[in-house]
Amino acid sequence: MPIPGKHRRKKSGPIARGILAVGAGGAVVALPLLGATGAHAAEQSAPAAQSAPAAQQSAKTYKVVSGDYLAKIAAQHKIKGGWEKLYQDNREVVGGNPSLILPGMKLTLGAQASSSASTASSAKAEAPKAETKTAAKTGTKAAPATATESAATTTKAADSNSTGWTTPVANATVTTQYHASGSMWSSGYHTGSDFSAATGTVVRAVGPGTVVSAGYDGAYGNEVIIKHADGMYSQYAHQSQLMVSVGQTVTGGQQIGLSGATGNVTGPHLHFEIRTTPSYGSDVDPIAYLRSHGVSI
């Protein structure tokens, strides 16, 4: 990253307000330097002009590779504000769905948007909300903000209960039950419940809590672990994209990623666990846990 050089004012010579010229007759004539005042002012304003792009110069460019997702990139490069800030700075590149980033995309890391750009971005982000409010008052139909926001809103409204708890995917169908036995599992039995979910299906937090893990974890692939207020932990494995970062607070029904087939799997699905600790081996029956929170499944 280039560092702007320090601006140093040239020292004035003995003749500060004029220049010498040799006339036709050989006489030395002092000519007034009419632009001296203007040049001096321009010289003083140069640092101010240079300071404008200083924030832009502090930004880095990152090229997306296979397996990347915004939360992972933000964590690796310690982006203040997490994946949300990274997405905000690169919305024009990524598009309306922050979960869909493609190899080859060039993202700006640590960008400091100008006040006008920030205002424009905020206005753009808030536009769908404003349209929704207008629609509510006038009875007209407003266009959905983005595919991601629309899907998250729809699924949350469809199966969340009054306590804020829900299933990890919409239209939840369990394909492999908890404690199913078999040699394919290192513990000798299935430590969670598998839900049918094609790649790209919205994965959501089953209840309010705080993200304590978000990243790649060997056989589990891309996983998210959330700690809930009752001290229990929910785990969501084999995702294709993660949309939350460690330390982030989530609500029940909030989208946290997209299902997939990362890690040790035979096909796309969502592996879901409830644990007494964030670590493997502390599992309890996830379906019974959801039912204890009023979720019909």
Main sheet attributes: strand count, strand direction, barrel closure: 10 strands, antiparallel
Shape summary: globular
In percent terms, what proportion of residues is strand? 15-25%
**Uncertain runs with pLDDT below 50, 5 residues or more?**
1-57, 113-158
Q: Tally the beta strands.
A: 14
CATH architecture of the largest domain: Distorted Sandwich
Number of domains: 2
Question: What's the quaternary structure here?
Answer: single chain
- CATH fold name of the largest domain: Glucose Permease (Domain IIA)
As a whole number of angstroms, the C-alpha radius of gyration is 29 Å
What is the top-level CATH class of the largest domain? Mainly Beta
Average pLDDT level: 72
Helical residue percent?
25-40%
Count of DSSP H/I helices = 8
**What structural class do the secondary elements suggest?**
alpha+beta
Order of SSEs, N→C?
EEHHEHHHEHHEEEEEEEEEEH
Our measurement of the CA-to-CA distance between the termini, rounded to an integer number of angstroms, reads 54 Å
By CATH, the superfamily of the largest domain comes out as Glucose Permease (Domain IIA)
Mind sketching the topology for me?
Blueprint: E1 18-22, E2 28-32, H1 36-51, H2 54-57, E3 60-63, H3 70-76, H4 82-89, H5 91-94, E4 106-109, H6 115-138, H7 147-159, E5 174-176, E6 193-195, E7 202-204, E8 209-216, E9 222-228, E10 233-242, E11 249-250, E12 255-259, E13 270-275, E14 283-284, H8 286-292
Antiparallel strand pairs: 1-2, 3-4, 5-6, 6-13, 7-12, 8-9, 8-11, 9-10, 10-12, 10-13, 13-14
